[in-house]
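The protein record now logged underneath.
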Amino acid sequence: MFTLRKISGKKRWFKVLFKVEMNNAIKNFLETDLIYNLNILGVIDNVPTIELYVDNEEDPRGVLVKKDYFNYIYTEDDSFLNEVLETFFKDGFYGFSGVKRSIAEKIRSRFQVSWESPCSLYYLPKENLDLNSIKNPVASINIEDAETVDKYYTYRHPGSLEIIKNDIRKRPSSAVYVDGELVCWVLIHDDDSMGIMYTKEGHRKKGYAVDVSIDLAEKVINRGKIPFLQIVEGNNMSPGLAIKCGFIP
């Protein structure tokens, strides 16, 4: 995830991109590189207000998804990437999210980066799901506890509480409660990635994080999807937990 400012350059002319509705051809195209595109597919599924652009509805070279400030791009075709950047990203500031590293590097070479947060993607194959690793009772997060989740959220901001409430209402979540108190939790963002995990101090090293992670992964699989998460580089704790739960980097 990163924010960019466009550097002035020469004008170039390309084929027109079209705003379209999701169809099987676009879905099949994204699924040719499925793991890297889980977040794009999630955003398309979960956010009705997104704008979806391709160059050809039946045989796309790439996909651009615009969701408010953030943009999601997938392509292996440099001419498509050039077309997108010249058409949609002129002077100003733009955010990109969940962009494959090889694509991100090409974008970065044409912009000044004002902020970035490189992540590693981990996913859980169905055969790696081990429900026997769950040692404690797990429940869904009560909507009344959204404020608690928001209070401990690393990226808390003025609108984060409403986003968290939306995540709890619309997608599965998993939590451990001790004597009625929410002590450990994880939920699903609108791009289908698992996140906002937290265990309160005083309740750590009891296996709760494993419990909620595996429980939520099962819920994702039962929805016909692949559990995945994005871990910010420099986070030295989460990769070990992810691998312990069966996730693959």
Observations:
- Helices lie at 24-31, 38-46, 78-88, 101-108, 146-151, 160-170, 208-222, 238-244.
- The two ends are 18 Å apart (CA to CA).
